């Protein structure tokens, strides 16, 4: 395989990863917004989730989302391997490492949700995740597990935003905007994790 062919394949992978990533980011965005609604009430959260499920659990939509998750993880790992020798800045390293953690989290989390839903016949709603975050000692593993996933999502977006904005503004301004996205991600991570860890589980849930 010659260098031109390899470069073309790398370009196609980057383009696919970027555009399919937009689809995934929109889904994750609504998912995180849904979790913020717990601060209003658990019923508000569940009502929004039930409405959203009518869309994303349609067989065709769900198949597309699952395919995007899998191929995002695979293409992301390939890109990370190719980029590992060119991580010159802190943002480069955050871009790669946040992407790798997201790939790991998406595969494990989706597999866990599908197992709970299809094999254990559980309603994988708010309490499916909160159950392990609100109980000791499981919380010692699952609070960092979920918290790093949310933060990695915002870090990854911030790194991409910095690269894209470099064509339209100064490097310092692009970096400042990326920093603001990361700070917003820290705040959202804290809000979601704290609330999830404080949820009182319904009596008899998952029995």
Key features of this structure:
207 residues; mainly alpha; 7 helices; 80% helix; globular
Report the structural category. mainly alpha
**CATH topology annotation:** 3 helical TM bundles of succinate and fumarate reductases
Query: What count of domains describes the coordinates?
Result: 1
CATH superfamily: Fumarate reductase/succinate dehydrogenase, transmembrane subunit
Largest sheet at a glance? Answer: none
Number of beta strands: 0
How much of the sequence is in beta strands?
under 5%
What coarse outline follows from CA principal-axis ratios? globular
Nearest-integer average pLDDT: 90
Roughly how many Å apart are the termini? 56 Å
How does this model look, in words?
With about 210 residues, the chain is mainly α. The protein has a single domain, classed as Fumarate reductase/succinate dehydrogenase, transmembrane subunit (3 helical TM bundles of succinate and fumarate reductases), CATH 1.20.1300.10. Helix content is about 80%, strand content about 0%. It has seven helices and no strands. The chain has helices spanning about 5-35, 40-55, 60-85, 90-120, 125-135, 140-165, 170-195. Helix 6 packs antiparallel against helix 7. The N and C termini lie far apart (about 55 Å). The model has no long low-confidence stretch (mean pLDDT about 90).
């Amino acid at each position: 395989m010659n260098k031109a062919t390899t470069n073309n394949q790398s370009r196609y992978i980057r383009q696919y990863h970027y555009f399919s990533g937009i689809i995934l980011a929109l889904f994750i965005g609504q998912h995180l917004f849904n979790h913020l609604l717990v601060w209003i009430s658990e019923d508000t959260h569940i009502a929004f989730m039930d409405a959203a499920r009518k869309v994303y659990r349609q067989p065709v939509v769900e198949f597309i989302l699952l395919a995007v998750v899998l191929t995002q993880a695979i293409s992301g790992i390939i890109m990370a391997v190719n980029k590992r020798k060119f991580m010159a800045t802190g943002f480069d390293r955050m871009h790669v490492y946040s992407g790798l953690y997201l790939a790991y989290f998406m595969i494990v989390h989706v597999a866990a949700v599908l197992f709970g839903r299809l094999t254990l016949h559980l309603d994988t709603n708010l309490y499916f995740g909160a159950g392990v975050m609100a109980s000791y000692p499981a919380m010692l593993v699952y609070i960092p597990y979920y918290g790093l996933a949310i933060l990695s999502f915002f870090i990854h977006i911030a790194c991409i935003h910095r690269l894209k904005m470099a064509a339209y503004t100064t490097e310092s301004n692009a970096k400042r905007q990326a920093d603001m996205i990361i700070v917003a991600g820290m705040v959202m991570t804290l809000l979601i994790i704290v609330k999830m860890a404080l949820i009182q589980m319904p009596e008899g849930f998952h029995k």
